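Homework-ish question, so no full write-ups if that breaks the rules, but can someone show me the predicted structure for this set?
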Amino acid sequence: MTNGVASRSARDAERVPWIDAMVLPSAAVLAMVVGYPVVYTLLLSAQDYNLLGTTPERFVGGGNYRKLIDDATFWLSLSNTAIYTFGSVAIAALLGLALALLTENVGGRRGRAVRALLLTPWAVPFVVVAFLFRYMYLQNGGVINALLLAAGIVERPISWLNVSSLALPAVMVTNVWTMTPFFFLLLAAALAAIPNEVIESARVDRARGASLIFSIKLPFLRNALLVSSLLMIIANFNDFAKIWAMTQGGPGYSTTTLVVYVYRQAFENFEIGYASAIGVVWLLLLLAFAVAYLRVLRMK
Amino acid sequence: MAVAMGHPARPARRASQAVQAVAIGLALLWSLAPLYWMLATSFKTELEAARLAPTAWPHDLTFANYRGLFTGELPFPAFFLNTLITCLATAIVAVIIATPAAYALSRARFRLRGTIAYAMLVFRMLPLVVLLAPLYLLLLHAKLLDTHTGLVVGFVTFGLPFAVWMLKSFIDAVPIEIEEAARVDGYTRFQIVRKVVVPLILPGLLTTATFVFMEAWNNLIYPLTFVTTLDKQTLPAALVLTFTGQFKTDWGGMMAAATLTTLPLMIAFFAVQRSMVRGLTSGAVAGA
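A: Not a homework solution, just the prediction itself:
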């Protein structure tokens, strides 16, 4: 395409341009609405910037970051985020795997119907899921308490979302419900993609049941598992809708994750500078995590 | 897949089949019971939905909850239209912008190719909320706050990187020979994309658009922050904002609204369910 530059070295370098014009629209949009905000966030994070403040914003350097270190709520929301994300992703991945293995040999129309029905929770909007579970978790008149009472598992109705030790697990159950179909979908596809010869020769070698699953099938699912959990981990770091619509981060700070905390700092306290600093720290953590993860993914 | 058919039915086999059937039944119950509960509640009267001992099915079947959505004080049809319009616009815009990029990343050789492909993935990982404050200020200065256009800009940002990845995987599957034939016929590169590649990856385009659509439909934080007038609000945000008011005790009405919020997403999802798997699996794998 572009050939204005005289080349000194390899002929290849002459023909390979730096960029393809077709990427430009996407790159431009992303640079404007992602690149610019990221740079802006970095700048904001070094300022004392309150949208409602009477004093104009001023440069405070690392001030916001120093404040962060002593902020117990920040550390709590960091650990809540980790528990929420890794806990629900791990459980959902295991459930999805179990479902994929369970329905693997169910063929025909019945198989298709079962698979489609198992996928439905994924197509329910997060906010709807949140309100639905909130209704089911109700202390008075909630169906979950009614069932537990009827089965004699609890003696009196539990106020799931209003007890700090129970709220996070309760939200996680909701999260697992929406997420499991995603793992099921990807893992079932990966299972179906295992070459028949592999399974056949394993059978000849008398691999059955558990050993067939653990030594033959699981290695084939490794990448699908890693990729799908990476996608879900990222999605969960960002999850706002479910938590906000169910508990708004409460009771106390027991379900406050980083998203909720940043949101509250920025749009309820209007502490844009401080919120940005939290965002930057979080961004770095996420990038470190993503790099490590991609490393593992590329390893064979 | 059909291995189970070939063997004679031995007792052990039959027992394991029974266990499997029960397990599948439980899995279906876990997946569908909450949805049943939503539907059932949406047909209960306000009183029945709030009963201390919940009824398993609507004893006093009523459509009042659905009627109430269209005749009540809240502009529910407007919420619905707002969401539909912004999400559709997002899907269309994202796919249009993403297609050339996906094509270039799939076919063309250029030096920044790997870097850009990687950057797309990294963009995807950025926490939404971190972008929120600057994006808010950006829209504020561009006078796009509290407009549907501003909302679409926000949604597209979030959907674009993954759209590029998904589309790339669909384009990768198109044999290059077809394009070479078109090139011989004198098509320009842009014509090739428009007249040869796009028709071939139509299912992929649809799947990607649906995925972006679903993500936008699920997005709560952007409308909540960027839209300030209730009349312009999207469904998810409107549900959150009004829940404390109108729906506080009216779970039947709430569940009717929830059901209608779910419907479009459910339809979109099942329309493209199959190619969704392919787009997700291949699109998700890193490394150009």
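Now go work out the reasoning yourself. Hint: Confidence is low (pLDDT under 50) at residues 1-6, 283-288 of chain B.
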